[in-house]
Amino acid sequence: MQAPVMSKASVLVLAAAFALPEIACRAATSQSPGRIGVYARLHEEASSPDKLRETMRFMKSVGIEFILPSGKDLAVYWDSQIAPKELVKDRGYMERIIQSAHAEGLKMYPVFCVATEGGEGGPNAVLKRNPSWAFFYEGARRGYIDPGNADARHYEVSLVSELVSKYDVDGLSLDYCRCPNRPGYTDTGRAEFLKRHNVDLAKISGAGAETLETEGGKKPTSLVAASARANPIWPEWRKWRTEQINALAREIRAAVNKAKPGLPISSYVWGYHTYKNKSEVCQDWVTWINDGILDWINPSGYRYTDEAFLEAARLNRAHVPKGFPFYITIGVKTSHGSLKDAAEVRKQMAMSRQCGADGLVFFTWESLRPFANELAADIKSYGQSK
Question: Contact, 334 vs 356, CB < 8 A?
Answer without folding.
Answer: no
